[in-house]
Amino acid sequence: MTAAENRWAAGGRRPASLLTETSFRKLPDNRHEILVRRDKVPHVRLPAQPSGPPTPHDLVHAVVETALGVGDGFRGATARGATFQGFELVTPGRHRRSGMKVPRRGGDAVMDAEPRVTWADRAWSGLPTEGRGVGPAPLDAEAPARTGPRLDAAAKR
Q1: Are 35 and 23 contacting, i.e. CB atoms less than 8 angstroms apart?
Q2: Are 83 and 100 within 8 A, CB to CB?
Q3: Beta bridge partners of 24
Q4: Local structure of 157: helix, strand or coil
C-alpha cells in the first residue's frame, strides 16, 4: 500500500499511516507472515500462518479499513501499540505485556470494525451479504465500490 492509501481519519489521533508500516509476506505452502513496524512502540510480527482464504484476514482488515477511513479498527489499534493473539515482539524487552492494554481500552472500536470488514470481504468474494445468518448490512450500498478494487489490487500483490 502507498502512503496515500494508508492515510486514515483517525478520530483526532495522528493517522495510523504515520505510525506504522505493515508488511504481508507470502511464504511457501500457502502461508503468510505479517510484520508491523511502529513509531514509539515495539515492532511486532505474526509468525508464519496458514493463509486459509485466498487473502489473509489481517490484510483484508488493512485494505478495507483504509478504504472506509476506519482509524480505530485492527490497524489503528496495532499502530497505537496493541498486540493480538499470535503476535510476538520483534525485539522482546520491557514492553512484553503493554500491548494488551490497547485492545482492552479500544476493544469496542476494534470489534465494531469486524462486521464491516467481514461484510466487505463477503461482497468482494461473491458470498451472500444478506439473508439467513448474515444479518443486516453494516455498510452502505456504495462500500463495495470503495473496497473491491483495493482488495483486487491487494490480492494480486
Answers
A1: yes
A2: yes
A3: 34
A4: coil
CA 81 to chain centre: 14
Place of cell 493473539: 85
Amino acid at 29: D
Could you tell me which residues are beta bridge partners of residue 37? 21
Query: How far, in Å, CA of 96 to CA of 44, rounded?
Result: 11
Rounded CA separation 103/92 (Å): 19
Per-residue pLDDT of the chain (157 residues; tens, 9 = 90+): 433 333 333 333 444 444 678 888 888 888 888 888 887 777 888 888 776 666 788 889 989 999 999 988 888 888 777 778 888 888 766 555 545 555 555 667 778 888 999 999 999 999 888 888 778 888 888 999 999 999 999 888 8
